[in-house]
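Exercise 3.2. Students should predict the tertiary structure of the chain below and write it as structure tokens, then compare their answer with the key that follows.

Predict this chain's 3D structure.
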Amino acid sequence: MGPQPALFLDRDGVINVDHGYVCTPDRTEFVDGIFDLVRVANQRSHRVVVVTNQAGIARGYYSENEFRRYMEWMSGVFEEHQARLDAVYYCPHHPATGQTGYKRACTCRKPAPGMILAAQRDLALDLAASILVGDKPSDIAAGQAAGVGLCVQVGADGAMGHGITEDLRAVVDVLAVRQAGDHQSDLVGSDIIINTASTR
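Answer key:
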């Protein structure tokens, strides 16, 4: 089986509404349309990979273990909606503010491409055939630096200029016309992978 395309997703502002350092189910509000997008990506044999800056860890708002447990919960919610997250990569650092070990410049915090490149190595991804969806210029910069074929900024500040739900539906349309590969069944039931890109 050759390299596979991926759908890279930022988390806050793309998967869930960005209420600021969200890390508990009670503060989670899923963006309308995200389950449909991930479901179509699964059907089109794209690995779905979350790439997220998590400065809340550096700032001490929650621990890495708490973040991992939260993402496992989130993955379960997607499964309840017949959609699958294949992997989560996160950067726990901040260059200016943070606790010991977390306050530092790194190659994983977007706009650096470290998380995307780590996912490529770990999951054998075809970046040129992949799509990245983010809500900030730093997301797009990371995707472009890594060589992701299509990078889409959603939301009011995005290039399409619509609300995020409308933009996600447009990405669904892009995925819907892509041809599914013959390796789709190999991905069913795969366990979610949660990694820090900085250790790869």
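Discussion points: The CA atoms of residues 128 and 155 lie 24 Å apart. The chain has a mean pLDDT of 88.
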